[in-house]
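Forum: Protein Structure Q&A
Topic: Joint prediction for protein chains with partners

I've read a bunch of threads here and the consensus seems to be that you should model interacting components together rather than docking separate models afterwards. I'd like to see that in practice. Below is the full input, 518 residues plus whatever partners are listed. Could one of the regulars post the assembled result?
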Amino acid sequence: MNFMASKQPENSLLGPEADSQRTLYPYVTGTSVVALKYKDGILMAADMGGSYGSTLRYKSVERMKPIGKHSLLGASGEISDFQEILHYLDELILYDNMWDDGNSLGPKEVHNYLTRVMYNRRNKFNPLWNSLVLGGVKNGQKYLGTVSMIGVNFEDNHVATGFGNHLARPILRQEWHENLSFEDGVRLLEKCMRVLLYRDRSAINKLQIAKITEEGMTISQPYSLKTYWEFSAFANPAQGAVGSW
Amino acid sequence: MFRNQYDTDVTTWSPAGRLFQVEYAMEAVKQGSAAIGLRSKTHIVLGCVNKANSELSSHQKKIFKVDDHIGVAIAGLTADGRVLSRYMRNECINYSFTYESPLPVGRLVVQLADKAQVCTQRSWKRPYGVGLLVAGLDESGAHLYYNCPSGNYFEYQAFAIGSRSQAAKTYLERRFENFADSSRDDLVKDALMAIRETLQGETLKSSICTVAVVGVGESFHILDQETVQQMINAFDIVGEQEGPAAEPDAAAGQEAAVDQGGSTGEGAAPMDI
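Posted by a regular:
Agreed with the consensus. Here's the joint model:
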């Protein structure tokens, strides 16, 4: 008995045929992004890895990009969707500049625009599979926010995506304070990135740290963190708890 | 202006390079009751004369809040003005929703001007018969713009539109150099004085005028009748005699720092660039 079976409209994204037209799962992904506010602006760190499943396939992926004059965007998740977002933002900034007046979109405006985009895509069951970090400084005001692939967004003094939420945020909650110097900020970020390197299997030891201040954005050359693998727990990992395989 | 064979359609040029329908629309603005605006570095005040049709009716609303940081005063076909205010409110609210930030007034004014221009280039439309004094804030401070039916817009330090606006303009012309550093209250006083000029001898009271203020740290709002009446009494404007209203002459409106200027001479086309 089949009365009133609900039928999808022809152009909907649900239903078997439409699967080729929407994002079902990510393919090439970036791992955590970590960012914090410091004295002069925002510091953001991300490694340069693009994983293809469990393979660390691409090792020179820039996952942080400047947006306009005042903002910096970092992304984890599907790299091709990040590139798509950069394309949207390119157009947004272009039209903003074409007004040629004294006004410009600041980090708060870009963050909210991205929130609208991510949430609307989620509602159409065709998400951009990214977690984004948007930071910047405009007119002396520092701004740092994040948006997830389902449109959850908020601002904070320090944010992270993915594994960074579980491993880096607790460190930041303990050790972040107002008006960190640049050196202290970098040291704190490196501490977080080191933990992620040890514990996140999709992390690689090649990272960049980006800084954005009222003057503009700079991004470091890729570099590696020093690691120590001689901890006795690493030497004999099964000592405390013998595994079954 | 006299009827001629080139004035039937908005899409017909005259041999002298004029669009008469657009000019007629600007006449409609001149027939509406007066509206004035003036600004300092941080505040803008809008004022208008509100004459009710009869003692039984209420007066028409001519000042509209568009957003917390933008307001508009209109002169001309108030119905057209209402529709344009709704458009402006929509644009502001959509921008606020997307960017969580107020729409810069300079951008809204351009959008409004482009909307008006469309009506000067479609045979199935007519120009909006309303002039708008748009007061608002953006990143660079306080701004006052005048949008006319031709699709042109100009920025002003102070301006007046509508019937008998020339009297107000003359008053403002004399004082405008001081406005930039005026206090908010002095600005309101000058607005009331300018309104008084357009009344030509009639007593200024709060029941026949409306005043609105917007500024840095002050949302756009219309001052209530009591406050306005108190200010009128306090400044003793009613008794003050500034001399008879000046003869309407071909003088242009005043503008502060602008690329375009508008001149309203009797013979010249009103919308020279």
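Chain A touches chain B at residues 99, 101-106, 108-109, 112-113, 116, 139 (CB under 8 Å).
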